[in-house]
Amino acid sequence: MNNPVIEELQGKVAIVTGAAGGVGAAVARLFAERGAFVVAQDIKPAVGALEEENERIVTLVGDVADEATARRSVQLAKERFGRLDVLVNNAARIINRNVVEMSLADWDAIMNVNVRGAFLHAREALRVMIDQGSGSIINVGSYACQVAFPSIAAYAASKGALAQLTRVLALEGAPHGIRANVVAPGDVETGILDELMPDGRAFLREHGAQSPLGRVAQPEEIAEFIAFVASERASYITGSVLLADGGYTAV
């Protein structure tokens, strides 16, 4: 018997940013396993390994905050696969620094990746999706869309901005059959903190243990959620911030 969940992305074409590791790599792999064609993009050349793993994945190395990268990604999707159905804006950076200690360069570095990059890719994707009359944009946010902690001012502000950007995308896209949502994870065991501390994954496991579920999430769990939001099972969901935070924001 056919499994409608496993086949729900069959033939879809997706762009996934920040795909060299963590949630982005998990999304690219899952989408390809379920029959989608994927443009996996990252500034890190290591993203190329995904193309070697699966013939449904093509990779692109570029800075997500660069306008040319956004255009190249959409162009690659159209040239190789003929269309674009899903955009997953996953690329993100974080910095742990109190406001009084933060430089303008620190602030801009976070905003450029987390907000500017998402805007540029959404804009280019919309131009294709509007012509098609369909599409789904999924911006990977954070529970920092709704809650805050000391030392993450730039990150929290970027995720709040991403939530508002998504709501506008949903309103502008709705007349054209395009949905836009935020998937907002809590702590996920990835390498996002590796440049900031000796063992970022251990810190995330410890912080995740404070959630009501008492553990950190794995990238594959968030990828499953993103696949659902991308699918027709979520066809009536748009303009939403959808939390997958182990109950953290319920406290």
From TrEMBL:
InterPro entries: NAD(P)-bd_dom_sf, Sc_DH/Rdtase_CS, SDR_fam. GO terms for molecular function: oxidoreductase activity. SUPFAM superfamilies: NAD(P)-binding Rossmann-fold domains. Pfam families: adh_short_C2. Gene3D superfamilies: NAD(P)-binding Rossmann-like Domain. It comes from the Bacteria. The keyword Transport does not apply. Keywords: Oxidoreductase. Belongs to the short-chain dehydrogenases/reductases (SDR) family. This is NAD(P)-dependent dehydrogenase, short-chain alcohol dehydrogenase family. It comes from Azotobacter beijerinckii.
